[in-house]
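USER:
Class, as today's exercise, take the chain set out below, and explain how the chain folds.
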Amino acid sequence: MCERKEHAQHNWIKTGLTAFVLLTCLRVWVGPFSMTDKAEAQAFDPAAQRAEIRSEAVKTNRLLQEIHQTLKTQTFKVRVEGTDKQTKTRIVVPRGKEKRRTDRDQ
């Protein structure tokens, strides 16, 4: 009778250990459970990224064309002031030809 009790206890221990090992393997396979939200990467949209890069390139080209046109058509007076150690260069823009405000100036 004592042997049966020990055998029954031994079976419970085996069953408990087997269940514990199986649950541990399942948890490792599924991954850790978290009560808080996880940070996830944003969806990558290559078409939108290309469109944004193209839009910025078009803006840059337009600004460069304006600068090029301004340098071709206008005359600037440059006056150098100061000594050799402290030279200041000042560009005088003709009246009525002030720099237009751009998005970057704001």
User: Anything to note?
Assistant: Confidence is low (pLDDT under 50) at residues 101-106. The first strand starts at residue 77 and ends at 82.
